[in-house]
Amino acid sequence: MISSDELETFKKSCDHFISINSFFSTSLNKTQARSFLKNSEVTEKSEPILFEIDANPALVINKQFADVSPYSEFPAESEVLFMIGSIFRLKTVKRSSDGQIWIVRMTLCSDDEHDLKQVIIDMKDHFVSREINLRTLAKLLWEMGKPDLTEKYFIRFLEQLPLQDPLLGDLYHDLGRLASYVGNLDKSMEWHKKASVVKKQNQSSITVCKFI
């Protein structure tokens, strides 16, 4: 759902570029995508809208989207996640054939588009001010209200870290806070205990180094 004012802005932006300033969750399954609209509350100032995106991975140098359904609690949703700062060219804004929703058709742009190069540079300066790793992605997914997917990305990042990595304790704390957030206090305690152990080990290492 979007506001009527936002819809008017889309209508006036055909053949222009639009940028997404957050992660953009989509589905490969059109029927599934439309089913989400049934659970949305329609008001006088809101409009049901469906985005149809043409995203050809062969034309995109830097991968800007990924199929995250294998890590989702609901794999049948066929979720595809577009990265922060993804830029699209808006093609058309039209009513669906049944007149029930608005269809916004747009195409994911590549870095090589001649008239987009300066836009890409500006967007990178604005959005990519720091490296986006799995922990960053997990935290953003948490903000999007996806705790199950958040945990899976935290765990994936955890599996990549060496045993002596200084981030290990912070990651255990993240997992502890996440477990507490979803109401699993026992699991939260386990993660926080691991974080405490890592903290003590790090302090011991520092003491030994100073002594030497």
Automatic annotation (TrEMBL):
InterPro entries: TPR-like_helical_dom_sf. SUPFAM superfamilies: ADP-ribosylation (SSF56399). This is Uncharacterized protein. The lineage of its organism: Eukaryota, Metazoa, Spiralia, Gnathifera, Rotifera.
